[in-house]
Design goal:
This protein has 220 residues and is α+β, with helices and mostly antiparallel strands. The protein contains 8 helices and 6 strands; from the N terminus they run ββαββββααααααα. The strands form 2 sheets. A 4-stranded mixed β-sheet has the order 1-2-6-5, with no helix packed on it. Strands 3-4 form a two-stranded antiparallel sheet. A hairpin with a 7-residue loop joins strand 3 and strand 4.
């Protein structure tokens, strides 16, 4: 799948509207040219901002430029000003191996980080997560996104979502990985004090492993 940068994201149904970046292919090539590749520091910044893959599907997409890498899933970047960027997992491969430079709108926001304040996006993600009539894949996306907000309301929505056995069976690991983001908060102490669904527990343990690997990659 290929999209021009900064066009509406339309690949899969989504809980929130997003803007596409990094959906590269041979039709449009490496958008923006390759004359100004990211510096090592900029790449580390981008990689650190991409800790979580969501929207994993059944198939894999091979890089159309070298065929030496495959991707499955997407990154979401929630900016403090309300914008959302959606990128494929090959996004980082394109940056590192094909000198793709993401739009300045993303890089500038990452270079000058600000906390996410609870807003309409967080409200929407919470609502979708707890809507038993919503598509499971979209609810899983909401579970992933809510971990970006360091807010008790995000934690409360994730905790409440564990009452839905069907959701746990399909996306319990994603819920667990998101809950793990709140383990250092006072209200998150109950994570270690109760018996959780096996998939949720797996997600919490996987989050700890992923955090360690991200630490190693960021400072390597």
């Amino acid at each position: 799948m290929e999209y021009l940068d900064l066009t509406p994201y339309e690949y899969l149904s989504s809980a929130l509207p997003a803007t596409a970046i990094g959906w590269l292919g041979t039709e449009h090539g490496v958008q923006g040219g390759t004359a100004n590749p990211l510096t090592a520091a900029e790449f580390r910044m981008l990689r650190a901002a991409s800790p979580r893959v969501g929207r994993v599907t059944m198939g894999w997409h091979a890089c159309e430029f070298c065929e030496n890498a495959e991707g499955n899933g997407e990154y979401r970047y929630y900016l403090p000003d309300g914008r959302i960027f959606a990128a494929p997992t090959l996004f980082l491969h394109y940056v590192e191996w094909h000198c793709y430079r993401p739009p300045a709108q993303l890089l500038d926001a990452l270079a000058d980080p600000a906390p996410l304040h609870w807003d309409w996006r967080a409200e929407r993600l919470s609502s979708v997560l707890l809507d038993k009539n919503a598509d499971i894949a979209v609810r899983a996306e909401a579970a992933v996104g809510l971990a970006c907000w360091d807010d008790r309301r995000a934690y409360a929505a994730l905790w409440k979502s564990m009452r839905d056995e069907d959701l746990l069976d399909c996306a319990g690991d994603e819920i667990g990985r998101s809950l793990a983001a709140f383990s250092g908060r006072a209200y998150g102490k109950e994570l270690a004090a109760v018996t959780l669904h096996s998939m949720v527990q797996y997600g919490i343990e996987k989050a700890a492993q992923d955090d360690y690997q991200i630490f190693l990659r960021t400072f390597s």
